[in-house]
């Protein structure tokens, strides 16, 4: 523990925000500003009085938390942040999808190494993340045997991790926010990444409030603006129907086996607005494919890709309920004759997997995202101009889904029906695809002109 006798106490300040009055106790430890907010002036005075008594008694103050050693020791009976984070992950394990588990862990790989004391012989950042990823943040039966380096890193974390209660201090919460604002390499993190990690920290601290560690969530008392994230689809990524057909026609020309097997999968993303993981779990029993006319897909499950350590089965792909839907809830999507014909041809040529999946590798497995992304990039080179290939136009297979939804909206399909087919809520649909709804400006301008000139 790094301690000091360099302590200076300041006056209590009154603040008013949104009609609520708080009292802020301020002091300095080793030249660093410290502060703590209280709901009443009496509580703030009592806290400053405790600090003053500690200085008069010649007590050392901890540089990291800014508290007297005696006060820090009185708090140490509670869980450390590492211990609470481990319990948080395990508590959510059985009810979370593999990607959610991985997202939780990814945030904690940032937070746990940041919320520590300045203990000597700190392991490298890579070693700390490694032992968290492969051992500490997994259920006991899934943990790998520790190497000597991992054992040393975990032992250091267990000694150095701050008490969970330390997050009641504003400067500790700001340390956490600073940590999630940068990448592991120290560069500014993307807005979506920062917002996801902040949401996980907030949720973890809500659990701490439930367990009476805090009377209210400490994050709510910090004035910190999350970076603005892009939440709308960029129209430059959206292909028109002619470009979509060109891309789908180019897919079978990529390789001798993989490209031909993936054409109908990409077609499902474009013509039915399926998510790639939904197309991956599409079964014959869920598909009505008449010889002529429109068909129907009734989605029951999705097959997302995850890291093996986070999945229930220990496999890369596993079947789960649809995104944002209850277990066993389905989604019906009418599909046009063009897609019906492609699916019929695909099944006739390649058959199905033993479990009825329409799309499978030559050995019956599921295509990885890297495998179908490679085919897609090669198809773009065959179907698009060099300038288009260098652009964001249909840069990812998922952009075919954006193209489908944009096409439906611009064709005049009512938003509730589009949302139903795409698996969105109406408000999310209109917000995400706002910039892709073309062809309405002249009509709207005409209505405004008529109103101005009756």
TrEMBL record:
<dbReference type="InterPro" id="IPR050090">
    <property type="entry name" value="Tyrosine_recombinase_XerCD"/>
</dbReference>
<dbReference type="InterPro" id="IPR013762">
    <property type="entry name" value="Integrase-like_cat_sf"/>
</dbReference>
<dbReference type="GO" id="GO:0015074">
    <property type="term" value="P:DNA integration"/>
</dbReference>
<dbReference type="Pfam" id="PF00589">
    <property type="entry name" value="Phage_integrase"/>
</dbReference>
<dbReference type="GO" id="GO:0006310">
    <property type="term" value="P:DNA recombination"/>
</dbReference>
<protein>
    <submittedName>
        <fullName>Integrase</fullName>
    </submittedName>
</protein>
<keyword id="KW-0233">DNA recombination</keyword>
<dbReference type="InterPro" id="IPR002104">
    <property type="entry name" value="Integrase_catalytic"/>
</dbReference>
<feature type="domain" description="Tyr recombinase">
    <location>
        <begin position="233"/>
        <end position="446"/>
    </location>
</feature>
<feature type="compositionally biased region" description="Basic and acidic residues">
    <location>
        <begin position="315"/>
        <end position="328"/>
    </location>
</feature>
<dbReference type="InterPro" id="IPR011010">
    <property type="entry name" value="DNA_brk_join_enz"/>
</dbReference>
<feature type="region of interest" description="Disordered">
    <location>
        <begin position="307"/>
        <end position="328"/>
    </location>
</feature>
<dbReference type="GO" id="GO:0003677">
    <property type="term" value="F:DNA binding"/>
</dbReference>
